Amino acid sequence: MARNPDRLTALDSAFLHIESDGAAHMHVASVMVFQGDPPAYDDLVEALESRLHLVPRYRQRLADVPFDQGRPVWVDDPHFNIRYHLRHTGLPAPGGVEQLKNLAGRLFSQQLDRGKPLWEIWLVDRLEGDRFALIGKTHHALVDGVSGVDITTVLFDAAPDPAPVGPPQRPWAPSPPPSRAQLLAEALVERATDPAEGYRAVRSLLRAPRRVASQLGTSASSVGAMLGTLLRPAPPSPLNVPIGPHRRYTWVDGDLAEFKAIKNELGGTVNDVVLAAVSLAVGRWLRRHAFPTEGLELRAMVPVSVRADVERGALGNRVAAMYAPLPVGIEDPEEVYRRVHESMAGLKESGQAVGAQVITQLGDFAPPTILSQAARLQARQRWFNLVVTNVPGPQFPLYVLGHRLERLYPVVPLAPMQGLGIAIMSYDGKLGFGLLGDYEALADIEDLADDLETAIAKLARVAGVRRAFGTKRRSRPKRRSPAPATS
């Protein structure tokens, strides 16, 4: 019996288990700012509903297997109502950026309802400057960053007056939900008759094309590189404290051409520039908190897409991890960039991401009860200090009902003991940095955003790049920094 294609993978399931304590919320999200007056709510409902046949998972919910004898499966939601998922709200006066960030922080503080399809979109009115916003949330078990970009380009338009979307072959009608007995029987039969499913997944990876092997080394050495990293915990920092359920959210604007110019002058990649800027900013933030940084090197978990071209548009997660050093104890921007660039080149040669993928796929062997405990245990280990994820987005304008998408700011969720996540997405020549922080641990998250802008400016200066984008953030009184934590 072949594996049920609607059954979650081990990695998808892990994102569900991490939420068990009620503090971590495993949804990826974004804040999208559009030009013009907002569309009518009913028109937006009609537009999205006409395209849901292109993403069938958006009408499906999770069904748990009794007694944890198998990973959950996606089943049609017989009570699906798009108006539950597409919601309408407005900002309080004056309707500025601060009010939008506060609203986003509240929405990102709430877990998605497991009894319904795991997504929400909020239409936000009354944003100053003749604009409106959409705030979207999708559970990480359903989508990773790269497939999320693909979904966005499906649901939105590539022109102000797009061609009509073709209707579905037949009107949607939910399939009858399976009974608990059916779910249990199918899971047990699948485990008994197809024990090699996980083995085949690993074997296919080990037989990757020669170009991958030549670039990243053998999978065995890659696993060794990853295990060597995981055996050494990341250093303590004020970012690694028990988190609560509440969030703060802010963003920083960047220009993709500027980042490319910096990497062209200094050598390396756009991701090197991003990581160097984050390192400089976090180091400055730590010193302001009186946390000693001399010789300190934090560790960032950097998700890497391992999605093949033929899988683009498919849902679920196809990601592995690299653990990038952040030399926060160094204040010279040129030296920070050099260290980051050399470290990232070394990590790519070690094949650490391939090793992470092999280890992740081995989770398909594990019984679900063991897998759930392993996921909770893993989330509490200090293997990294923060997540920094950089996702390439569409480099052309997107529209909703003729309204142009102006800015896009992404969100990466926080795991237990992780107070800060930084997500970056490029869109139409721009870069949006989204900073999500635990409400208590990152009370001064706006100051950290200022530090990030300062770091980008410093890197541009040492590279001799004229700043194409550099509007100063609105000045605010500095927040009182809490006492540094060391756990």
Q: What are the main properties of this structure?
A:
disordered C terminus, globular, 487 residues, 15 helices, 14 strands, six-stranded mixed sheet, alpha+beta, 20% strand, single chain, 36% helix
Total number of beta strands? 14
Radius of gyration: 22 Å
Tell me the strand percentage band. 15-25%
Number of helices: 15
User: What class, by secondary structure content?
Assistant: alpha+beta
Oligomer: single chain
Q: What is the string of helix and strand elements?
A: HEHEEHEHEEHHHHHEHHEEHHHEEEEEH
Average pLDDT taken over every residue:
82
Strand order of the largest sheet: 4-5-6-1-12-11
Ranges with pLDDT <50 over ≥5 residues? 196-228, 306-318, 350-377, 480-487
Amino- and carboxy-terminal Cα gap: 47 Å
DSSP helix fraction: 25-40%
Q: What form results from the Cα inertia axes?
A: globular
The main β sheet shows up as: 6 strands, mixed
Describe the 3D structure.
With 487 residues, the protein is α+β, with helices and mostly antiparallel strands. Helix content is 36%, strand content 20%. It contains 15 helices and 14 strands. A 6-stranded mixed β-sheet has the order 4-5-6-1-12-11, sandwiched between helices. It has a 6-stranded mixed β-sheet with strand order 7-14-13-10-8-9, sandwiched between helices. Helix 7 runs antiparallel to helix 13, helix 9 packs across helix 13 and helix 11 crosses helix 12. The protein is globular, with a radius of gyration of 22 Å. The C terminus is likely disordered.
